[in-house]
Amino acid sequence: LVVAVGEHVGLDEISCDLLWRHAGRQTPHDDVGEADWHRVEMTFLVNDRWRASFPVTELGRYVYTVSGWVDRFKTWVHDLQKRLEADQDVRIDLLIGADLVDEAIGLAAEGPDAQRLRAYRELLRSDASIHERSLAALQDELAILMRRHGPRRFATIYQHELPVTVDRERARFSSWYEMFPRSASPDPSRPGTLQDVIDRLPYVAALGFDVLYLPPVHPIGETGRKGRDNVPSAQQGDVGSPWAIGSRHGGHKDVHPDLGTVHDLERLVAACRERGLELAMDIAFQCSPDHPYVHEHPEWFKHRPDGTIQYAENPPKKYQDIYPFDFETEAWESLWVELKSIFLFWIERGVRIFRVDNPHTKPFPFWEWLIGEVRHDHPDTIFLAEAFTRPKVMAQLAKLGFTQSYTYFAWRNDAWSLREYFTQLTQTPMVEYFRPNAWPNTPDILTEHLQYGGRPAFMQRLILSATLAANYGIYGPTFELQEHVALRPGSEEYLGSEKYQVRHWDLDRPDSLRDLIARLNRIRRANPALHHDRNLHFHAVDNPALLAYSKATADRSNAILCVVNTDVHNTQSGWVHLDLDDIGAPPDHAFHVHDLITGSRYAWQGSANYVELNPQVLPAHVLQVLAENRTERDHPTYR
Amino acid sequence: LVVAVGEHVGLDEISCDLLWRHAGRQTPHDDVGEADWHRVEMTFLVNDRWRASFPVTELGRYVYTVSGWVDRFKTWVHDLQKRLEADQDVRIDLLIGADLVDEAIGLAAEGPDAQRLRAYRELLRSDASIHERSLAALQDELAILMRRHGPRRFATIYQHELPVTVDRERARFSSWYEMFPRSASPDPSRPGTLQDVIDRLPYVAALGFDVLYLPPVHPIGETGRKGRDNVPSAQQGDVGSPWAIGSRHGGHKDVHPDLGTVHDLERLVAACRERGLELAMDIAFQCSPDHPYVHEHPEWFKHRPDGTIQYAENPPKKYQDIYPFDFETEAWESLWVELKSIFLFWIERGVRIFRVDNPHTKPFPFWEWLIGEVRHDHPDTIFLAEAFTRPKVMAQLAKLGFTQSYTYFAWRNDAWSLREYFTQLTQTPMVEYFRPNAWPNTPDILTEHLQYGGRPAFMQRLILSATLAANYGIYGPTFELQEHVALRPGSEEYLGSEKYQVRHWDLDRPDSLRDLIARLNRIRRANPALHHDRNLHFHAVDNPALLAYSKATADRSNAILCVVNTDVHNTQSGWVHLDLDDIGAPPDHAFHVHDLITGSRYAWQGSANYVELNPQVLPAHVLQVLAENRTERDHPTYR
After folding, report:
1. Contacts with A84 from chain B: Cβ below 8 Å
2. B236 and B226 in contact (C-beta within 8 Å)?
3. DSSP states of B141-170 as a string?
């Protein structure tokens, strides 16, 4: 029955609280009492939706949930108002209200609140006029006291505790520069050292980066060492891959003697800090056959029936210079503890950012445990997952604790693909747990686009990564010097890859992109709109070769609009159809956009505006929308 | 590292099982062992998606989950194939395989499987040729044996058990007819009885319905009884609302003496069954002040400070003829048990379908418990929730156990709203738990559309409910006789509502819609496409007053296409743009559609076809797509 008999029911008022607490290492199975939670009153919005927020003041893990209950007193106040409006006799109702207050007194601790509640109860039960007693019943103070102390009988609590991980700001906004230390020597006659990296810091800082990431700095194995360009056997003097970790000089807690010492690394950490940079180390959990672990802990490796240790394979390919750890070993617990101690070793030496090699080839529970343990004591650590693998595996690694993730960005080269991919990254639930770190190149990834796209491709990919993603990085100096020759057609490997040999780079070459890089990093720092991923918004363009997108702060005081020509060969032009609200531009006046790369200014009006981009000159506009210049007369040329 | 060092890893083969069991009354907290599950091997599809199915052969509750593990043997076979293709030496690999088989032998019980595994192990370790041993390793039989007995070390299991509720078919496909027994008398000088309802069954069966639903048949209270048209005080002879349950003649387990006896109700249940009908009872958990519970169990009601019992209210309105149960009473447990016993009382008398009045005004946990308890012993019971309330509340009632739910259908009258609403009901996750039962009218709902739309509105709403929803119902004889006068403008109450007075109906009136109703119910029975909700598909029409939709069986052997003119006043015409695949029509030939209401046939071709509907004549086509007539030559007129 809807109306006649049914109308009386189901009109109870509901109250809801958000419950939250800092959870630290606590697991969902720990016993949590009512007193462990902070409570925030939730506000009703519409259609059974409620809202509340809570402040996060510490790094680490918070959890929250919600609780709701039938609020007898709120229902009573609501009904009383309607009865009074209808001039009904409310004498009995006032007594019912007094009983509700009485119940709250019984639950409140002795103190000023209990005193005030007692005063209200007495007034409601007194001989004062109905008018006076009704006024008292409707007092805000009484509502607040009753919300605080009233019974929450049969309160229900949402059965899941929802986690919130609080990271420091660099987890959300960072600019990475990767380089091989052994290629950092200014003297072509000798390989580079950590001291050379320290000497290179002014260059990296001038480029505007804030994270310096080095491939593994540990001793490199000799057994099965690969030669230049990954040929199966090394020649005399070949230096080997830094990812073939471990030799008679030590393992994951040692520095390659050619690079320096652990003390040098500590000096590098300090030197970075002085320049506003932070060192990121590479953690690759695998061993060369010469790694001390192989002899000291044979139980951490898989053994073949012929007594040899199982090397890495992707049949029919064999990687006899690499022994993977056997995560299914009976001795997995001691293996886990040791691997954790590697992180702690470098954390003690000042490192807080780790780029983790191939995390998807180790068990999920291992990473969940390791990152949880490390972050419990060091919540300022940042873990970048290098998992170029299936989407669901990348998502799972992000969910279980990795702070940032590499992406498929390098292979998204046309406007449609870029829009689809970054929409997925920033406008779906992925944005809640997956922080993209966009790289146009890495030592493993020289895309066909960069191989054949020339200087326009490098400029375009740089601008895209630096403006689409709040976290981005480049692998240099190959990037700024536009290294683009692959090992062979169809390969994404560099010819003469630094992975297998020492290189020397002429950083001062006139065709270097260093000025553009430095300018983009300055633009990134100066514009808070670029420090976030969630605020990415794509705009329509009538030319499918063009990509238009913006990022703006919530109050629109800072808005950056980018238009990129994804065609590396031809000038493309078209009309951009702007969503003006999203860039804080007025619908009814002209406004100005300032190209932060070239310094040009344009007076635009309305949604549709014309753009033309010659990739040989500059394949993109990075425009600041100048909201303060709302009419033509505000433009400098009119003043 | 992606390629060089990294390529070897993360290539383990995975195997997955679906685990399922009939769960009965078992709660998720019960201890469930490995042996309680049936296992089904899952098939890998793409991108980390797997598929499996399991048969449900019993009514009631099943649960399922999934388990996955690294399958060492499958990985080994996969690698071995690649090694053999590359002509590598596999002697050591064959020994590794033998060790894997050995491990499975240790896990398999003694028997033929263990014997076969032993034979494979010996062959793999034998001096036979590499070729012979490799062939053995790749045998399907070995793969099957190893899948069955191989270790599932470190298997992970999805942490949630996902429920599947299995209902009987009438839960999914049913046609309801509601009528007031006291208005069933053929003699205008006396009110109807249950015997009169038995005498009315041939009429209801001829209309083609399979569920006969009666409002409450219990004794009606006298205290505070409402008069005709819901006036506050009854006159002598006024019969009161059947939802004001309970008098000196008894309560929820009794039959109103004017209607008959409990035995008469049992006779009605049997008579329905003989006609292919099933009786649905109305369960309304509320009492008149005269209900025996009020005296026998005052603890189940709320008491006011003046000693009176709290009547129902929606301030400032008072419903002093109704006492709601107090579900927050200290005595809630005895109340719950008694209310459950009401269902069991009528189940013992043969009733299996219950229409539950206002379930949203009672606690969710109460219904979850009650329905779970009742269905554990009587899994063939069907519960229809009459909760015309907020969307999330309706969804929650369906999730916690209600079999069917009333909908907002009555108020969705234009084509756009109908399409939006039924898309939500059938093409979103709602379809997994919420079974709509669409009613154009009820004793509480005489919509403005029916009040002012005339005969076309009744025809249109009938066809829409009978073809859009697999479960539907009408409130008769008001519907077939097109009762359309409201109590007052703006009200959805009937003037002279049967809720408050006895009515007599002339079923043989020539303007009755009985023939159209009977035809529609015959169409519903004959066409399996109409027995489901999930298969609803909307097609584009270039006239916004027209709505086009189809339902087809999975193999397209039965496909029904409806085109409805939602304008009750004007003839509307337009081009329907059919998704031919969804109706099994050929893209390249003409096909025929057969109007199942009028008997007309049309030869159509391609996607775009013209339709014109005069609402005064018939506001809709209900077309069967004749897939067997694939060319013009197949048409009867060509033969």
Report:
1. none
2. no
3. HHHHHHHHHS--TT-EE-S-PEEEEE--GG
From A86, which residue of chain B is nearest by alpha-carbon distance? B316
Q: Which helix (H) or strand (E) holds B199?
A: helix B194-207
The reply to whether omega before B477 is within 30° of 0 (cis) is: yes
Segments of chain B scoring below 70 in pLDDT:
1-10, 25-30, 628-639
Both structure tokens of A469 = 């993603």
B27 contacts chain A (CB < 8 A)? no
- Amino acid in position B295: H
Tens of pLDDT along A322-366? 999 999 999 999 999 999 999 999 999 999 999 999 999 999 999
Please tell me which residue of chain A has the smallest CA distance to B302: A96
Does B8 lie at the interface with A, CB-CB under 8 angstroms? yes
> Across the interface, which of A10, A83, A360 has its CB nearest the CB of B10?
A360
Q: Whole-model pTM?
A: 0.90
A10: nearest CB among B85, B389, B499 = B389
| Residues A328, B86: C-beta atoms closer than 8 Å | no
Q: Distance from CA of residue B353 to its chain's centroid?
A: 13
A239 within 8 A of A505, measured Cβ to Cβ? no
Please give the Cα distance from A512 to A506 (Å, whole number).
Answer: 9
Chain B residues within an 8 Å CB radius of A153? 328
Inter-chain CB proximity B5 and A319 less than 8 Å: yes
- Chain A residues whose beta carbon lies within 8 Å of the beta carbon of residue B315: 79-80, 82-83, 86, 88
A630's torsion region: left (phi>0), alpha (psi -120 to 50) or beta?
A: alpha
The CA R_g of chain A, rounded to the nearest whole Å, is: 31
Q: Residue B310 to residues B252, B298, B324, B334: CA-CA distances in angstroms?
A: 20, 11, 8, 20
User: Closest Cα to residue B474, out of B171, B177, B173?
Assistant: B177
- The span from the CA of B127 to the CA of A131, in Å, is 105
Contact state of B3 with A492 under an 8 Å Cβ cutoff: yes
Q: How far apart are CA A196 and CA B405, in angstroms?
A: 74
Interface contacts (A, B; CB < 8 Å): 174
Q: Render pLDDT for A538-563 as a digit per residue (tens, 0 to 9).
A: 999 999 999 999 999 999 999 999 99
B226 touches chain A (CB under 8 A): yes
Nearest to B256 by CA among B288, B233, B226, B230: B288
CA distance A604 to A90: 65
DSSP track, B499-562: TTS-----TT-TT--HHHHHHHHHHHHH-GGGG-STT-EEEEESSTTEEEEEEE-TTSSSEEEE
B435 touches B533 (CB < 8 A): yes
Q: Give the ipTM.
A: 0.86
Whole-angstrom Cα distance, residue B374 to residue B383?
A: 10
H/E element, A203: helix A194-207
Identity of the amino acid at A104: A
Q: How far apart are CA A623 and CA A592, in angstroms?
A: 9
In the DSSP assignment, the letter for residue A528 is: G
Q: Which two tokens stand for residue B424?
A: 């939500």
Task: Report the catalytic residues of B.
Answer: 357, 386
- pLDDT tens for B420-469 read 999 999 999 999 999 999 999 999 999 999 999 999 999 999 999 999 99
What is the Cα–Cα distance from B332 to B299, expressed in whole angstroms? 9
Task: Looking at the complex, report in whole angstroms how far the Cα of residue A243 sits from the nearest Cα belonging to chain B.
Answer: 7
From the CA of A284, how many Å to the nearest CA of chain B? 9
How many CA atoms, within 13 angstroms, populate the side-chain half-sphere of residue B247?
20
CA–CA gap between residue B117 and residue B104 (Å, rounded): 8
CA nearest to A392 within chain B: B48
Interacting residues of B153 by C-beta distance below 8 A, sequence separation 6+: A328, B69, B70
